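quick one before i forget lol
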Amino acid sequence: MSVPLPAPLWRRLIAATYDGLLLIALWMVAALIDVLIGQQLLQLPRSQPALMAYFFLVGLGFFGWFWTHGGQTLGMRAWRLRVRPNDGQPLRWITAATRYAVMLALWLGLIISTALLASPKLAAAHPQSGLFSGLFLVFAVCALILFQLDSRRRAPHDWVSGSEVVVEPK
């Protein structure tokens, strides 16, 4: 039996793009359900924290189910990638939840930082954002360097959750 190869960064990013588009579509459906049922039918008051928690749970359901049932999301399956714990056993829900939470925080931080740095008007509206963006980008660069130096090519969400992404044989 051969040892699985660590997934290269380019493959992980392409699979993440696929899965990110699927997640956005799921969030759009979730928002529609929230508006139609929560706002229109039940006349519930709008709550930003509740909506964010709802979106988090939708994403956790998507990633968690795929990761705990075969270790592959649709994007990972297209690029022959599999997530697995460092011990090689099937991924458990607590590991999937940890991995998803850290992954989501990293991606949102990267997207927000990039938007704040790219838009002077947006950055001017949020004066404290410059410090956040700078610190986050330093963290992202350090994480990228560590990713390249790690022999198993683990990202921060891999380290925290005790998992890794490997390339599946053909």
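fyi The helical segments are 9-41, 48-68, 74-78, 93-118, 120-125, 129-149, 156-161.
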